[in-house]
């Protein structure tokens, strides 16, 4: 397979699974596709809930409250945007327990969800 065929495959795959997403109420994503001349292989994941829309840095402002959509982050943890860089956004935890220090993270805008 060629790179162009793999790109077309991904596009057609996303169109084909749209009805399954609607029917079962899941968000289906196809991870990195590896390919050679014989074929391709990839990892598919279906997660319950609506599909997260990837945001760009232009969708955010300093002071906005956000959450981080990542498997290692608690979805209830809220963060405040403290700086917007060229590619990433720096955030600080805001709802931490008394006596605890909130962590600061530099995050890709595609992982942030505005509150």
What topology emerges from the helices and strands here?
Blueprint: H1 3-16, H2 18-24, E1 26-30, E2 34-35, E3 40-41, E4 44-48, E5 65-68, E6 79-84, E7 89-93, E8 104-107, E9 112-114
Antiparallel strand pairs: 1-4, 2-3, 5-6, 5-9, 6-7, 7-8
Q: Can you walk me through this structure?
A:
With 115 residues, the protein is of the alpha+beta class. The protein has two domains: 46 residues, no CATH class; 58 residues, SH3 type barrels, CATH 2.30.30. Helix content is 18%, strand content 31%. It has two helices and nine strands; from the N terminus they run H-H-E-E-E-E-E-E-E-E-E. The strands form three sheets. Strands 8-7-6-5-9 form a five-stranded antiparallel β-sheet, with no helix packed on it. It has a two-stranded antiparallel ribbon with strand order 1-4. It has a two-stranded antiparallel sheet with strand order 2-3. The termini are far apart. The mean pLDDT is 88.
